[in-house]
Amino acid sequence: MRILVVENYQATSLGLMRPALASAGAVIDVRRAHEGDALPETPDGYDAIIVLGGGQSAVDDAAHPYLPRLARLMRAFGDADKSVLGICLGSQILARGYGASNILGRPTEFGWQEVTPTEAGRDDPVVGVLEGPSPLFHWHSDTFTLPEGAVHLATSALTPHQAFRIGRAVYGIQFHFEADTALVRDWSDTFGDVAAEIDPEWPERHAREEGPLGSRADAAGRAIARAWIATIR
Predict the structure, then answer these.
(1) What is the pLDDT of residues 159-205, one digit of tens each?
(2) Could you give the CA distance from residue 153 to residue 115 in angstroms, rounded to a whole number?
């Protein structure tokens, strides 16, 4: 299988998705759109697309003029019945591509926070792998309305729309299930000043929560990764 991966920000990588894709024998084509890498015009030659997170908003077209093209490309993959995965900013761009509204500047949801599948989510082949409420990593303030026809899959205390599915295998997931404990440590170092503005006690909280919550998040994230990869055909 050949997977298009779009990065939108420095140090924002596939995390635990990479070994899961490698185990499935996937060939990965990474485009760093924020650094000027060109995006393909169509989904031709690919079996799926993954769009990762970033610090910009999904509608920051002035600073990131590729965003409208990326939104259209994600929808084109979905319209071609190819698997789509948008994570955090990627989910917001996906929602935009399907005509939903992006909601900016809400309170920041940060750290390992509980995500709860909806009734539809419990029956979903991807989000349904969560065994009830689960601690997953978050780092966002923006969110979105649900696109028309989307199935609402998960929620959290601060953000009602944590995950949705359109059609067979188009997934928008707001929480960072790909952020295993290694990636969270990397972000805590690389973006430490930003984390301190959100939560001045983050270094102590990180050290306290990484073991009990991070390990559970890693297991849940690996299960979600494997389940999404299984949708690729």
Answers:
(1) 999 999 999 999 999 999 999 999 999 999 999 999 999 999 999 99
(2) 10
Question: 85: closest CA among 179, 180, 163?
Answer: 163
Contact between residue 156 and residue 135 where contact means Cβ atoms under 8 Å apart? no
Separation of alpha carbons 217 and 197, rounded Å: 24
- Check if the beta carbon of residue 42 is closer than 8 Å to that of residue 76: yes
Whole-angstrom distance, CA of residue 48 vs CA of residue 71: 14
The answer, as to whether pTM is greater than 0.90, is yes
From CA 111, how far away is CA 89, in angstroms rounded? 16
Strands (DSSP E) along 35-147, which ranges? 48-51, 83-87, 102-103, 109-117, 134-140, 143-144
Helix (H, G, I), strand (E, B) or coil at 62: coil
CA nearest neighbour of 53 among 75, 78, 34, 74: 34
At 216-229, the pLDDT tens digits run 999 999 999 999 99
Q: Decide: residue 108, CB within 10 A, 0-12 exposed, 13-18 middle, 19+ buried.
A: middle
- Tell me, letter by letter, the H, E, C secondary structure of 115-134: EEECHHHHCCCCHHHCCCCE
Give the C-alpha separation, 147 to 154, whole Å: 14
Looking at the DSSP bridge assignments, the partners of residue 56 are none
* DSSP track, 33-83: GGGTPPPPSSSTT-SEEEE---SS-TT-TTT-TTHHHHHHHHHHHHHTT-E
Work out the mean pLDDT of the chain and round it to a whole number. Answer: 98
DSSP state of 100: P
